[in-house]
Write a structure and sequence with these properties.
- Pfam families: MaoC_dehydratas (PF01575).
- By secondary structure, the chain is mainly alpha-helical.
- The protein has 3 helices and no strands.
């Protein structure tokens, strides 16, 4: 289901996403490098362990 505009979705509509994959540590590192986002929350496991979620987070733009 691609190519729809916001107005074309129905309220409460459920969209099934068939394609999926696991984001690897390498994927996360590479995305941070490409977007020049070197925030420790995404890359530093010791720093991230002390934050709210307790582990590194994948960038929300991924």
């Amino acid at each position: 289901m691609t190519g729809l505009y916001y107005e074309e979705f129905d309220i409460g509509e459920t969209i099934k996403h068939e394609k999926r994959r696991t984001i690897s540590e390498h994927d996360n590192q590479q995305f941070c490098d490409m977007t020049m986002n070197q925030q420790p929350l995404h890359l530093d496991s010791e720093f991230a362990a002390e934050m709210e979620f307790g582990e590194r987070l994948v960038n929300g733009l991924y």
